[in-house]
Amino acid sequence: MPGPDADADADADAYDATPFVPERGGLDALRKAAARCEGCPLFREATQTVFGKGRRSARVVLLGEQPGDQEDRRGEPFVGPAGHLLMRACSEAEIDPAETYVTNAVKHFKFVLSEERGKRRIHKPPTLRELAACRPWLSAELRLVEPELIVALGATAGKALYGSGFRVTQARGAVLDPPDELQALDAKGVVATIHPAAVLRAGENREEVYAGLVSDLRVAAAALSRS
């Protein structure tokens, strides 16, 4: 059975996690509430909600797209190969991984089953409706963590913050003004870059693509050093 497709659901306009987000409490309260979220159909096929992880006082939020297969099974973000690569890139760029909070724009794994690949669960990008439905969780996380900087990892993360017109190829490697909703957080801004999974898919160009990721993260590190 393939994973759910939000665009095919007749109730897509009603997707919204807001009723599941508690009005008060810290990150632990959010995490517990998110485990019961049914704000869009993705919860039906996913193993579990994969909420953000990190310190309440983290200086940087690393924002990805959605959990992958390993994250869905383990219930933690960025624990697969892409996550390990991201932490290595952060260290190389002189961003302390211990000073980061990692999360995703969408908290459930969206996938299709591939018959050609032994019925493996293959990642499928979330739709704009699913991004919008899950946005209340991300907004609540950012309000509590109050990061100095957000790193948007890939196009979907950027669209979650800035809307459908966002293009990571045009915006990467610079400190962008935070979106209107986040102005009150007093964050320095957003640095966009590629998702670390893009490095793993780069084949013979992997070293070059990885170097570009590190270069973008160094822009974020430099912004933090000016605080």
Automatic annotation (TrEMBL):
InterPro entries: UDG_Type-4/5, Ura-DNA_glyco_family4, Uracil-DNA_glycosylase-like, Uracil-DNA_glycosylase-like_sf. It comes from the Bacteria. Gene3D superfamilies: Uracil-DNA glycosylase-like domain. It holds the Pfam family UDG. Keywords: 4Fe-4S, DNA damage, DNA repair, Hydrolase, Iron, Iron-sulfur, Metal-binding. Residues 51-218 form the Uracil-DNA glycosylase-like domain. Belongs to the uracil-DNA glycosylase (UDG) superfamily. Type 4 (UDGa) family. PANTHER family: TYPE-4 URACIL-DNA GLYCOSYLASE (PTHR33693:SF9), TYPE-5 URACIL-DNA GLYCOSYLASE (PTHR33693). This is Type-4 uracil-DNA glycosylase.
